Amino acid sequence: MDYNTQLKKLALPEYGRNIQNMVDFCLTIEDRNERKRCANTIINIMGNMFPHLRDVNDFKHILWDHLAVMADFKLDIDYPYEIIKKEDLFSKPGKVDYSRPDMEYRHYGKVLEKMIRLAADYPEGDEKEQFVWLVANHMKKSYVQWNKEVEDGKIFQDLYELSNRKIDKRNSDMKLTDIKDLIRNNQKKNNNQKKK
């Protein structure tokens, strides 16, 4: 009796030993047309093993790549797709450069800083006051996610600095939403999302 630990290591264990045996048999077929028919049959069986992946783009292409890997790139057939090359299989991927946006206060985020600049350049009037109030409340909500307590004065000071001193609400009578209300609204929103 042969144990799996004594047998050849599987290139792609998710397909199992039987599929690997089929691929090994396909390699031994001498007639090129018959070998191609055998490879097509193996691809159909591999596709039936993972029916939930049929919606994935290039599903058949991925299966042909897997067949080539399991055959150790020795299967001499006309592939319907350009398959992956053996040297590309083991090469390291290129380095991904992550953007490092210049942000004054990271806890507010880049989008909120853009909104502050928009509010600073907004024409004077009631709409600007409402916009500034919404932005300041959003700043407070973002701040509370990282620090449990914050004074409105701190938010107004940050708003003043981030707007390049164009929005000055430090000595105004503007009132922001209470922290408890912000937390309660966040919890309600999270609970509603969990129910969906």
| Count of extended strands | 0
Strand content: under 5%
Provide the gyration radius in Å: 31 Å
| Structural class determined from secondary elements | mainly alpha
| Arithmetic mean pLDDT | 86
Shape: elongated
Cα distance, first to last residue?
Answer: 53 Å
Q: What share of residues is helical? A: 40-55%
Number of domains: 2
Show unreliable segments.
none
Order of helices and strands: HHHHHHHH
The number of distinct helices, counting runs of at least 4 residues, comes to 8
What can be said about the biggest beta sheet? none
What does this molecule look like?
With 196 residues, this protein is an all-alpha fold. It has helices spanning 16-28, 32-49, 59-70, 86-89, 110-120, 126-146, 152-162, 179-195. It has 2 domains: 8-89; 110-179, no CATH class. It has 8 helices and no strands. Helix 1 runs antiparallel to helix 2 (32-49) and helix 2 packs across helix 3. The mean pLDDT is 86.
Question: What is the element layout, followed by pairings?
Answer:
Blueprint: H1 16-28, H2 32-49, H3 59-70, H4 86-89, H5 110-120, H6 126-146, H7 152-162, H8 179-195
Helix pairs in contact: 1-2, 2-3, 5-6, 6-7
Q: Outline of this structure?
A:
The chain has about 200 residues and is an all-alpha fold. The chain has helices at about 15-30, 30-50, 60-70, 85-90, 110-120, 125-145, 150-160, 180-195.
